[in-house]
């Protein structure tokens, strides 16, 4: 069955319905694009057809382009990409012209897009080519062009359409930031024309088709005397817009995201030439971006691999393990967040704490989030009541009866966790899976308190739970497949992205992020300028510098982790130089953001005011400063080498999880596609050279792992060695 079908009514209105079978969301394939083109030809050639409605057979309009199209285009090289994009441009240009006389711009047939819900990427570009866009008033619908967030221009370009329609200034947030809006906000921005009640959508589209005039069909850029809203680049106002946009791009991307710079270039150059020429310019820039290894790495990690993990790529073969009733032990910020995301996903939750006051306070965390959603018109009072009605806040463990999954989120103290484990297992049924939420404590050790270690597993949420998308699932030595499947099915239910790793100290995420923080602090002790450390991190694509990150997570937590690690490692403990700085900061009462004092200074409202100038008194800045690249290599390799060692040690079982987990878990340079993708871009040989140089200057922590050395000698890449079919 074709993805597009057409019906023709007696009143002369043809309706083209997009409905991709076996998918919950419409995505565009090359074959579907050609089918659409054929139906448009049919409608334009049929004298009985007065106009066309393009709509969806699903609750949403479309989610974008089928990624297989991108993969095939890239495999064919630059010429294939360019010709493919231009072919799509020609189809959409045909919709814009709609059979009108090219000289008089008359005689065309009106084509309207009727959007029942979300319209993203090509799902917005196609409507933008129609003569009118009418959307249903659906607050949950998202309208936008999000591809820039994963290193690509829109899958086939056409940014010039948005800029030509609303001007560069209004289009900039959608194009350069991937901004998504609800229909009413998109209407206010000029991206769509009308918002109507859902039940009126098709009737209003039909009315417009039957009443449209020749003038309604002419796109602004085809009209004589057209001028871009806000001014073209050579106009004083337009010039200022593009100067500001360039500054915005560099300020937000630090120059490491090629797609953003290419997009701005395509729009700037395209604004100075006729529209059809602008489309060719944009196709060339799209080709340039798609051939960039950064773009392909981001698409692979943040679309293909992320989606595969969310769909169960590493799930053991087990019957469905969806959670019906969840117990959360500990109503602090972490437990309260877990309770909220679970109840919001439709799961009944029992939230337990030592006192009723603490349990109620944990439930009120959900109230606060929901109230904020109501104030932003994203949540209704009915939805709030429904979610809160699913959360039972109590001190009574007997309320856990019937729970099929428990998530324990109490203090990071093995004795307390052991006591909770025993109390829970006495209250729940024999088939209930027990998950401990911990960021550092080995799961196999905690499982010793359980009578059913095969049903004991680690689930590491990242804070704040409602915003962070990654969940790290840790398999202990005795954890069984059903516990893993249960955890994965639960993460799918709460609409987050899982990775599964084997048990080891710090697991995967913290194993990699702690060395990043430590390397930054170590450089402070060496006399490296703190501003250089922080800016070097941001200029290489890290969202936060290591000093800001330790402030955010709290310095006293860093001290606690350092002490526990030293106790476990003894004489092998490698971070005495880090402790000299960290412990001194804690002794000064500078505990980070939570105390409004850390490596950064803060005002009374908790806003950062810059790096703390008192740091220099204890750790003076050296007159001899390292180069920017040297600092960046230290910060990146501190993380990347731990990722490789985690793979060598069997903690990490799939490099897809290594890349996706790094980006979603701690924001590892998203432009790179993750640590393994970055090593593939860099080349194992070059990576080994950098490690050897760093080892000579800074010590054994930068020693090239055996696996990386072996790959360098063979000229291998991680994605080739560890299975292209499996990992890409």
What does this structure look like?
- This protein is α/β, with parallel strands linked by helices and 728 residues long.
- It has 3 domains: 4-291, 2-enoyl-CoA Hydratase, Chain A, domain 1 (Alpha-Beta Complex); 325-504, NAD(P)-binding Rossmann-like Domain (Rossmann fold), CATH 3.40.50; 510-721, Orthogonal Bundle (N-(1-d-carboxylethyl)-l-norvaline Dehydrogenase, domain 2), CATH 1.10.1040.
- Helices cover 51% and strands 12% of the residues.
- The strands form 5 sheets. An 8-stranded mixed beta sheet has the order 14-13-12-15-16-17-18-19, with helices on both faces. A 6-stranded mixed beta sheet has the order 1-2-4-6-8-11, sandwiched between helices.
- β18 (470-475), α19 (481-493) and β19 form a beta-alpha-beta unit.
- The two termini are 28 Å apart.
- The model is unreliable at 150-169 and 724-728 (pLDDT under 50).
